[in-house]
Design a protein that fits this description.
Order of helices and strands: EEHEHEEHEH
Number of strands: 6
Largest sheet: 6 strands, mixed
CATH class: Alpha Beta
Strand content: 15-25%
Structural class: alpha/beta
Radius of gyration: 17 Å
Helix content: 25-40%
CATH topology: Conserved hypothetical protein from pyrococcus furiosus pfu- 392566-001, ParB domain
CATH superfamily: Conserved hypothetical protein from pyrococcus furiosus pfu- 392566-001, ParB domain
Length: about 130
């Protein structure tokens, strides 16, 4: 099978295997709700996260444009050689539903991101003072 297409946006990305991702069990629920068995080899990659929910309408939109291109998902380093999905759970579900094994991914370092936001705030304050 071919890898998912994506819309380039000048971000560097890698194609990670789904087996390298840690994601919420709601992804598995959504896959099964849409008529496909969740791959048993991914069951150990699930965890519980009550801070968000997946929407069927959003998944339908992602599935409709899946082959024409989507932006990469965002992940942060997790335990071992695995990555925690931060943004793109609907795209992960769509990838599984399309029988793919890899998904375009941008790996973000949470510490770097926090430092960049602090720097942006400093610049905003400096600009406001002028």
């Amino acid at each position: 099978m071919s890898d998912m297409s994506f819309t380039p946006d000048n971000q560097e990305y890698v194609n990670l295997k789904l087996a390298q991702l840690l994601f919420d069990e709601k992804v598995a629920d959504m896959v099964e709700k849409n008529g496909k068995d969740f791959p048993s080899e991914l069951l150990n990659n699930l965890f519980v996260n009550e801070s968000f929910h997946l929407e069927q309408d959003r998944l339908n939109s992602v599935l409709a444009v899946y082959k024409t291109g989507l932006p990469p998902i965002s992940v942060s380093p997790g335990m071992g050689n695995k990555y925690i999905v931060q943004n793109g759970r609907h795209r992960v579900a769509a990838t599984i539903l399309n029988g793919e094994e890899k998904v375009p991914t941008v790996i973000v370092d949470e510490q770097e991101e926090k430092e960049e936001k602090k720097e942006e705030k400093k610049e905003e304050k400096a600009t406001a003072v002028k």
